[in-house]
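Appendix B: a complete holo record

For completeness, this appendix reproduces one full record from the ligand-bound portion of the collection. The bound molecule is zinc ion. The inputs are the chain sequence and the ligand SMILES; the output is the full three-dimensional arrangement of the complex, encoded as structure tokens. No fields have been trimmed.
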Amino acid sequence: MQSTVKRVVGLALFLLLLAAAYYAASRLQPRPATQSPRRSMFGVELSPEAASLASKVERSYQAGVREVRTSGHKAGQRARGVVARDGTPVIEISKYTQPTEAVIVHELIHLEMYEDGYPDLNFVRRDRRFMKGEDDYLNFIISGVHDQIHHFMFYPRMRQMGLDPEAVVRADAEAVLRAQDYDYMGLPADDVRAINYFKIWMNVSDPGLRRRLTDLYLKKEWRGPWLKASRMIEAVESSGPKTREQELAALEKCLNLLGRDGFRFSFRRWWYEMRGRHKHWYAEFEITA
Ligand SMILES: [Zn+2]
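The structure of the chain with zinc ion bound, as generated:
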């Protein structure tokens, strides 16, 4: 009899311990996904859409995006997306620029485009070496024309994500309009004027601001640069590039419309270099004068 009581008490204790263990284990279960903390970059909490773009980029590079605050603040260099030599995707944001979701998504899309085979540019001359200052000019072209065509291609997607891709550049455009003149950085003034017009027009869709820009150019009698820029805009808008080949065709057209010093830009070839496992493409242009 006594041993039966012991067994019953023992069984009850065992069941009690089992229930306690089960309860404790259930408390340790991970919380449902909806409660997990949101992805942040540069201290900015990303929307689910932006976070999934970041994950997509990281999956394709098989590496996390490196976040860098830079001390430089060159014109047009608030932020950039670059691929390091080892294939790490990097986003650099100047310490003078407030990181926002729009800035981060903008650079994530540039990184995504590199993975999709969109190229950097390189220029060669067969007849002679580049002269002093020509490198600066070509770099200005790269950031002033090539990037804007990219922006034209992906700003609609950013707007669909509920972001304002123009916020950062609108302030720049206003500064240009207020100053009514540019920092020419030793570059040919008319080319800088043409590129700046092109840049602002391609980045800012506000009709009021575009009208003020055109008024300024006509008032200053910068008809040459205005005409060049208008033809460049037309070349991009009418072709509506959707692939890297179409983008390059529009770019080649724009470069030849600029035509500084009788420069002719001819696309020569695609080539790539491996950066880690990332295939980094270049579009090579030959310049003849
Ligand atoms: Zn950009």
